[in-house]
Amino acid sequence: xxxxxxxxxxxxxxxxxxxxxxxxxxxxxxxxxxxxxxxxxxxxxxxxxxxxxxxxxxxxxxxxxxxxxxxxxxxxxxxxxxxxxxxxxxxxxxxxxxxxxxxxxxxxxxxxxxxxxxxxxxxxxxxxxxxxxxxxxxxxxxxxxxxxxxxxxxxxxxxxxxxxxxxxxxxxxxxxxxxxxxxxxxxxxxxxxxxxxxxxxxxxxxxxxxxxxxxxxxxxxxxxxxxxxxxxxxxxxxxxxxxxxxxxxxxxxxxxxxxxxxxxxxxxxxxxxxxxxxxxxxxxxxxxxxxxxxxxxxxxxxxxxxxxxxxxxxxxxxxxxxxxxxxxxxxxxxxxxxxxxxxxxxxxxxxxxxxxxxxxxxxxxxxxxxxxxxxxxxxxxxxxxxxxxxxxxxxxxxxxxxxxxxxxxxxxxxxxxxxxxxxxxxxxxxxxxxxxxxxxxxxxxxxxxxxxxxxxxxxxxxxxxxxxx
Length: 469
Ligand code: F0G
Description:
single chain; alpha/beta; Aspartate Aminotransferase, domain 2; 2 domains; three-stranded antiparallel beta sheet; 14 strands
């Protein structure tokens, strides 16, 4: 082409976009028959966590540890320094957390719940109250095992799948003030801040809300600890939706978000593009010393925390890649592509579409199945049966039982999470998934619920078994 002015230029909003990577290595997947899937499902007690991955065609169970690493990360594995103490990979990893998240002290853990365990041990004593913007399963169980009680102070809109509030993860500061007034700040060891909020449908908090939360907590002497698991996705939503942030990079926004908090726990298996890993980071020296001491008891020495040197190297590189604006735009763009397709077809999904997953509203999808016949569990099973697409329940089964009354908790949100691993699937996989869900939707009137026939004591959704009613 010459340098002549072009006659026609496609308007940016009509231009397709593509992922900022190409595929170098592939892993074959297997298509199965409906009969095969029906048998496997029955064997798995209608719990998608109990299926073997070889019986799954498209695996949208979770975005946890399922992302594809880059060539640079794979190269990093070869540079693993497997010294018991003081591995050079630890120092790379520590520097990456300090640079991108801004905390002073870092302790590696094998994954997020390892860090949650340490947080619970360091901060919580029996009788404490931990407020937060909606529970997360593993986070709450550690709070409860330490003798604490979690209290949800998220906005009401978060519990409404059809509310299109742009920041449904926001803390309701009025609810928090009431709680502080009722129980006293002395019983509140920290505020548990999720970003983005997984159980609300991958919904973000706004920077303004976090700033106001900071001011309120400071007045009462309550530290804020961030669940940074998907904070980069949250930073992207702030960039896209919040006034004053459109011109900032995701990296800058992440750093500002973390600056309003006193520490974080992290499942590096999500945002930061590794298959295993996590950390606990704080700014306070005493808290760090306690964490560094406890990690030796539960995870491993403070310079490896249950990880190999190579894992820490992959994590250090993954942290840097994960804040790249082009990466995060494509990642969330893919989730939005799937979500828009389903919602355009009239299938009830949580709006706005979340950062890591599309959440189907099982109450509206199967209105004839009562909540104690597990509509979301049944829907996840039906989607698998239809096309070998594995999703998971995020409703009454995930919510578990109230430790005091022993009764089911009945969350308002009864959802199926269609979770997208990062850099793994193509647009065609999203199309196949959408079409499978649409077929289940067409046949929804004939669907039946489930009965729970085996229930483990903790985090029952992972291992519970069901049969059809
Ligand atoms: N916090 C959040 C918000 C999470 O989503 C998870 C894990 C954890 C903490 C715990 O981290 O798994 O590394 O021990 N979520 C996974 C999921 C299990 O599928 O959403 P972990």
